[in-house]
Amino acid sequence: MKNGFASNIVRCPFYRHEKIPVIYCKGVSEKSYINHAFSDKKAYKDFREYYCIDKYERCPIYKMLCICEGVNDE
């Protein structure tokens, strides 16, 4: 995670680390990541606050990864 950091306030179990304006989530296969890149810092902060910290169950990446892992979170 060169020049990145892992936040201790993020609640999502698929979150791995971030490097503004990119959030790295667990990937769909072993040893892979999903890079969620944003065009500006505000979009990055808004997404992070709403999904990663507060309502991760509503995140489209979380939902996709639950399907890939066979997790029913409903």
What this model shows, in words?
32% of the residues lie in helices and 20% in strands. The protein has one domain (15-69). The protein has helices at residues 41-54, 60-69, and strands spanning 15-19, 22-26, 33-37. It has 74 residues and is an alpha+beta fold. The mean pLDDT is 89.
Number of discrete helical segments: 2
Number of domains: 1
Helical content class: 25-40%
Q: How much strand content do the residues show?
A: 15-25%
With strands numbered from the N-terminus, the spatial order across the biggest sheet is: 1-2-3
Please give the number of β-strands. 3
The low-pLDDT segments are none
Radius of gyration: 12 Å
Overall 3D shape:
globular
Largest sheet: 3 strands, antiparallel
The rounded distance between the terminal residues' Cα atoms is: 32 Å
Mean pLDDT: 89
Series of secondary-structure elements, N-terminal to C-terminal: EEEHH
Given the helix and strand composition, which structural class is it?
alpha+beta
Relevant terms:
alpha+beta, single chain, globular, 2 helices
Question: How are the SSEs placed, and which strands pair?
Answer:
Blueprint: E1 15-19, E2 22-26, E3 33-37, H1 41-54, H2 60-69
Antiparallel strand pairs: 1-2, 2-3
Q: Would you kindly provide a brief summary of this structure?
A:
This protein has 74 residues and is an alpha+beta fold. Helix content is 32%, strand content 20%.
